[in-house]
Amino acid sequence: MNNLAIIGLSVLLCFIAFGIVAGNYITPRLQAWSREDAIKALVTPPKALLAPHNPLALLTRHSSFRR
Questions:
Q1: pLDDT of 51
Q2: Are 41 and 33 in contact (CB under 8 A)?
Q3: Distance from the Cα of residue 4 to its chain's centroid
Q4: What pLDDT score does 9 carry?
Q5: Alpha carbon distance 6, 39 (integer Å)
């Protein structure tokens, strides 16, 4: 099997896997929200990623990291 076919198969399987995850986990949660809230959740990054001056912002949510 040549390299291009392997890469193409890998990309195809990634799309299939993402479709399964989206269908089973993401879509049901978004359907429970209003349309505006669901679009905001898909478009905006998490708040922890918006604080570049605080590199530990991602870790502060974890309960075992709290002081």
A1: 56
A2: yes
A3: 27
A4: 96
A5: 35
Give the range of the structural domain holding residue 11, as residue numbers without chain letter: 3-65
Look up tokens 């605080």; give the residue.
54
Long-range contacts from 39-44, C-beta under 8 angstroms, 24+ separation: none
What gap in Å lies between CA 3 and CA 42, rounded to an integer?
34
Tens of pLDDT, residue by residue over 15-59, are 999 999 999 998 998 899 899 988 888 888 776 556 556 556 555
CB 48 within 8 A of CB 58: yes
Residue where the block lists tokens 């198969």: 9
CB atoms within 10 A of CB 38: 16
* Overall number of domains in the chain: 1
Q: Are 17 and 25 in contact (CB under 8 A)?
A: no
